[in-house]
Amino acid sequence: MVPAIFLAIIGILALSHVAPFPFLFDAAAGKLCVWRASVPAKGQVLYLTFDDGPNLSATPQLLDLLKEKEVCATFFLIDTYVDERSAPIVRRMFEEGHTVGLH
After folding, report:
1. Coil, helix or strand at residue 6
2. Tell me: the pLDDT tens digits for 35-67?
3. Phi and psi at residue 100, in whole multiples of 5°?
4. What's the angle, vertex CA 20, arms to CA 14 and CA 21, rounded to 5?
5. Are 62 and 88 in contact (CB under 8 A)?
6. Across the strands, what pairs with 74?
7. CA separation for the pair 59, 89 (Å, rounded)
8. Which residues, including other chains, have CB under 8 Å from residue 85's CB and lie 6 or more apart?
9. Mean of the pLDDT values across residues 84-94?
10. Burial class (CB in 10 A: 0-12, 13-18, 19+), 89
11. How far apart (Å, rounded) are the C-alpha atoms in residues 82 and 76?
12. Within 13 Å of residue 52, how many CA atoms lie on the same side as its CB?
């Protein structure tokens, strides 16, 4: 019994260093929530992310589809892939309201 309690305390201490502290309160209250974001009043939200781009052939097709469906996404780019050929694609991401991040 003592080893189990000791392991539980160690686990909680370790978790408090790698997760936000409110996580522990949520877990104790039975409402396990690791991440929160505000949701617009007018509809639902779906978070899409696309990594390791831009890809010269696939990313424009993806942007076309997202525009057609009126959906925004987050693109995480690799800096060495951003050059004079891919710059128009990246510019289009911003112009169409997508979020862009760098790996």
Report:
1. helix
2. 555 666 676 667 788 889 999 999 999 999 999
3. -125, 130
4. 75
5. no
6. 49, 99
7. 7
8. 56
9. 95
10. buried
11. 11
12. 0
User: 8-36: per-residue pLDDT in tens?
Assistant: 888 776 666 555 555 566 666 666 655 55
For the chain, the domains span: 1-36, 37-103
Treating both helix axes as pointing N-terminal to C-terminal, what angle do 87-95 and 58-68 enclose, rounded to 10 degrees?
A: 10
Q: What pLDDT is stored for residue 60 in this prediction?
A: 96
CATH number, domain 37-103: 3.50.50.60
The one-letter amino acid at 98:
H
- pLDDT: which is higher, 65 or 7: 65
Q: What is the DSSP letter of 83?
A: S
Cβ(99)–Cβ(71) below 8 Å: no
Task: Take residue 82 and report the two structure tokens written for it.
Answer: 């951003």
CA distance linking residue 92 with residue 72, whole number of Å: 12
Secondary structure letter of residue 91 according to DSSP: H
Closest residue by Cα to residue 59 from 25, 86, 32: 86
